[in-house]
Write a structure and sequence with these properties.
It is built from 12 helices and 18 strands. By secondary structure, it is α/β, with parallel strands linked by helices. The protein folds into 2 domains: 172 residues, Acetylglutamate kinase-like (Carbamate kinase), CATH 3.40.1160; 162 residues, VC0802-like. A hairpin with a 2-residue loop joins strand 17 and strand 18. The longest helix has 16 residues. The relative contact order is 0.11.
């Protein structure tokens, strides 16, 4: 008997009709002879509403209590989906992340999964039940509720698929699959039939909101085929797999945008060995995820260090940076909370030249100034002013003819 994991995002369970539709998909998969586990997100804007409640109380909610609060959104969803399945005469049972043994590191608001005990799910499969699991959440070793960060239900689903040795993990969303860019911002964006784990990992980390990057990491590590598809149609979506046909023949697979970034600059730090290590050790200890880093050329024994973080982590990053700057004898710490990042991604970059020149020229012709540049073997990213973000994504997408099949 095959095992199928299905994940439904918040927009796919936002109304009673959509919940019944999701329940119907799970039932049909069960009737096809599969054991079925379903992971669901909080309905619609529930997580945002819960966060708003927290910030009505304080501008710096306690992270543990914030996790206690926002994890309730998924608990509503799992109960309603289970009820919808019961209403059709089929068996189902709902569990929180902690109840199915999803254990995370002891970090709040962005914990990483350490292991999943699938025994309880197997027991319910043996009873013929469809198992409904709350996404986005788990518990640490001390049974504190933790959450995995925004989009973490994807990670729950693929981690569960890995633990269950599932045959496929289906990610149901409000779009038809993975596109060459966000179709809401780029009308010419085209759906991809297939994309590699590596390309999807870069796309997800660079702002392609259709998949959570850590979910793709799990898929790649445990060789889980991931099918991203619409919850509103029966059309095939995009398969995320190890390799695609002629994978290096296409130079650029897609373009992505991270809109809400902030740039922090620590001025006048000593230009000597170990300084960067001290700075980013302190930032890491504060559980702030750093995106891009650049150090300016030394002048009179001192240098400026700039890095980007998610906009909602700016306050913590600034507090930590001011402290470490003072310890190092550095200068001012300044921030720009209105930057974005535009990127292009493609396995074919490994074997093609001229990608950077083509991207930079497209941005220059559109009057978009580049503040920082970062690269990897299969991606090029540029930090730009947020006011130019949408235009930058469109011109880069067009520069590589990504809308043409």
């Amino acid at each position: 008997m095959a095992i199928v994991v299905q994940k439904f995002g918040g927009t796919s369970v936002a109304t009673a009709d959509l919940i019944r539709r999701a329940a119907g998909r799970a039932i049909r998969a069960k009737q096809a002879g599969n054991s079925v586990a379903v992971v669901v997100s909080a309905r619609g804007q529930t997580t945002d509403d819960l966060l708003d409640l927290a910030y009505e109380i304080t501008d710096r909610p306690n992270p543990r209590e914030l996790d206690q609060l926002v994890s309730t959104g998924e608990q509503i969803s799992i109960a309603l989906v289970a009820m919808a399945i019961h209403a059709t005469g089929h068996g189902a049972i709902s569990f929180t992340g902690g109840q199915v043994g999803l254990v995370t590191e002891p970090v709040h608001t962005k914990a990483r999964i350490q292991h999943v005990n699938a025994q309880r799910i197997y027991e319910e499969f043996a009873k013929g039940n469809i198992v409904i699991v709350a996404g986005f959440q788990g518990v640490d070793a001390n049974q504190n509720v933790t959450t995995l960060g925004r989009g973490g239900s994807d990670t729950t689903a693929v981690a569960l698929a890995a633990a269950l040795k599932a045959d496929v993990c289906e990610i149901y969303t409000d779009v038809d699959g993975v596109f060459t860019a966000d179709p809401r911002l780029v009308p010419t964006a085209r759906k991809l039939d297939e994309i590699t784990y590596d390309e999807m990992l870069e796309m997800a980390s660079l702002g392609a909101g259709v998949m959570h990057s850590r979910a793709v990491e799990f898929g790649k590590k445990y060789h889980i085929p991931i099918h991203v598809r619409s919850s509103l149609t029966e059309n095939p979506g995009t398969m995320i797999v190890e390799e695609v046909i002629r994978m290096e023949a296409i130079t650029v697979r897609g373009a992505a945008l991270v809109r809400d970034l902030a740039k922090v600059t620590i001025r006048g730090v000593p230009d000597q060995p170990g300084v960067a290590a001290k700075i980013f050790h302190a930032i890491a200890a504060a559980n702030v995820v750093v995106d891009d880093i650049i150090q300016n050329i030394s002048r009179q024994g001192a240098a400026d260090v700039s890095f980007t973080v998610a906009k909602d982590e700016l306050a913590t990053a600034m507090d930590t940076s001011r402290r470490i700057a003072q310890e190092l004898g550095g200068g001012d710490v300044v921030a720009d909370d209105k930057v974005s990042k535009v990127s292009v991604v493609g396995i074919g970059m490994r074997s093609h030249t001229g990608v950077a020149q083509r991207m930079f020229k497209a941005l220059a012709d559109a009057g978009v100034n580049i503040q920082m540049i970062s690269t990897s073997e299969i991606k090029i990213s540029c930090i730009i002013d947020r006011a130019s973000a949408d235009k930058a994504l469109r011109v880069v997408h067009d520069a590589f003819d990504l809308g043409q099949g």
